Amino acid sequence: MQINVTKKKYSRKAMRESVSMGMLAIPGVVLLLIFNYAPMFGIVIAFKKYEPLKGIWKSKWIGLDNFKFFFTSQDAVRTIRNTMCYNIAWIILGTICAVGLALMFYSLKSRRALKFYNTVVLIPKFLSAVILAFLAEIFLHYRYGVINQFLSALGLKTVDWYAAPNAWPFILTIVHLWASVGMSSVIYYASLMGLDEGLLEAAKLDGANKIQQIWHVMLPHLIPIIIIQTILSIGHLFSGDFGLFYQVPKDQGMLYPTTDIINTYTFRALKSGNLARSGAVGLAQSAAGFVTVVVTNAIVKKISPENSLF
Q1: Residue 239 above 90 pLDDT?
Q2: Of 27, 53, 160, 165, which has fewest CB within 10 angstroms of its CB?
Q3: What does the domain layout of the chain look like in residue ranges?
């Protein structure tokens, strides 16, 4: 009898806790429904010849014509190539840099130094693309930029960076890594904090040096997090940081060969009034991202089931 009473008290307590947690989740769920799911009804615009006066539902249905316009245009190859190449390069370089920073943080003995460096690498993550653009201009301005001032001091020819498309893959990569690697490094560092110190002590007793400890103990511990982060990043393989690609190059037409991505192309289509075409490109972009996540996760599940997302 006592056991039954105890079970009832426990079930009531668990139910109250579940209700409380559910109440806390309500605002987030409501916002998700309003801003993420409710607008999904508007994807029908991608299949119509949208006329503002008629509205979405009364506009003429044209099937896949909006998709054909983009994929048969000369901009399709350029924007898709740029979007994919940047993302692939940034996934690889970002992972290497973030893991390297996390390992350095883990090696720090001073808590004060650790807090300082964590703050330094995290600050760029909270800067807007507009501020990043102004910071980049400080270095790249033709007359007053730090780089051209330095070149002039050495007696070398200055460069008009905003008219040199071949330089921008390197410029955008540097800006992106500076702005984003900090957050990823903190995630990897948090994972390293859960590493069993006994494994490192055992490695030291076996004669392993620092490099061997990193390679055989620390990196295997980070593999699951690296895989999850990579899968999530691959989901954005056909998407880019609009603010970075639009604000930092200042939307210069001469730089389009190396700075124009799907997101900036869609925005320009939207500005020109082609709402249906921009919707079609956005829908194709989302579908491609979903497919890449599912395929990547299936490959990971085949090789290492315990590290897959689902």
Answers
A1: no
A2: 53
A3: 47-307
